[in-house]
Amino acid sequence: MCIDLDLAVQADASTQARKLLHAQMMSFVAEALIIDSDHASELLHRKALPGYRGLYHLIKLVHSTQRKQSFEAALPMVPAGA
């Protein structure tokens, strides 16, 4: 999701989603500058609605918190009563 241009894509894998979003962003900017140049300033400065922006940042916060709390590294085992 590109919150600054209010664009979103959906894919099965994150790498595929990044590629699709990059292509969509490039296409959007090119069309705004070349095809619809009279409205380019408005198109390139549009933002997602405040509710969507808030939800985006909440999801981003939760996702970053979950990554920090992953249990991929082995925890040291301490015998009971030690």
What does this structure look like?
The protein is an all-alpha fold and 82 residues long. The protein has helices spanning 14-35, 40-44, 50-68.
Main sheet properties = none
H/E topology pattern? HHH
Q: How does the overall form come out from the CA principal axes?
A: elongated
Helix content: 55-70%
The total count of strands amounts to 0
- Relative strand content: under 5%
Structural class based on helices, strands and sheet pairing: mainly alpha
Secondary structure tally, helices = 3
Low-confidence stretches: none
Amino- and carboxy-terminal Cα gap: 49 Å
Radius of gyration: 20 Å
Mean pLDDT comes to 81
Topology overview:
Elements (H helix, E strand, L loop, with lengths): L13 H22 L4 H5 L5 H19 L14
What attributes does this structure have?
single chain; 82 residues; mainly alpha; 0% strand
